[in-house]
Design brief:
about 240 residues, Deoxyribonuclease I, Chain A, globular, 6-stranded mixed β-sheet, 5 helices, alpha+beta
Length: about 240
Amino acid sequence: MKLATWNCCGKFGTNLPHLLGEGVDVAVVCEASSLPEWPTGAGDRAVTHLSHRVTPESPKELAVLACAPWSVSRHERADSAPAWTLPVRVDGPVPFVLVGVWTVVSPGQPSYVDQLDRAADWIEQLDTSEPVVLAGDFNAPISSSQSQYRTVVSRLEDLGLVDAYRATRSLDADESPVDPTYFHHWRQDRPFHIDHLMVPSAWSDALTVQVGDFGTWVASRRSDHVPLIADIKDDVADV
């Protein structure tokens, strides 16, 4: 299974075929827009999808999609989840719960990291016998939120989740990622790693992670973010 997250910078209709062209099976897409018609995946694979606005002021949406034989459906407890999340059930060879997240700060809203903490609150109330993935544009960490972010990550680890990128790169807690996922103002000299795939710790030995390159995804003006894609072995152990 190829599991991805990408902030498409609003150009969803133009950009979605690029993401599907990577052969993704399941994806969280941030800053998406409503589409009159959804394309099929590679090989004419049927696409199921859900999306919603995370703030009433913005037409941009948080979307989750899957290509057959994978499919997504709204989680039965989604109504109790924070507005900046989109919890779904993913059905397929390895069923799991996927919580898409796109943190957006607006007046009256918690900070980026506080929003992640609220997402962890919701995950904590789930049935712990089923695999859970938290994925999306966290807008964190940055230098000013690093300490608080580490606290939330520690909490997610207590819930059985690990950062897929960090796990595959064997990074210690104080080591910074070397592969950016976001380039501020589209500038290669302003890199940040703020998009994440938090996956069950039992999956950490059964995956590889690739990060999109600046030239293909940013210099081409597709987005100021690049996709983060985890390739998870089909025989990954159930959690």
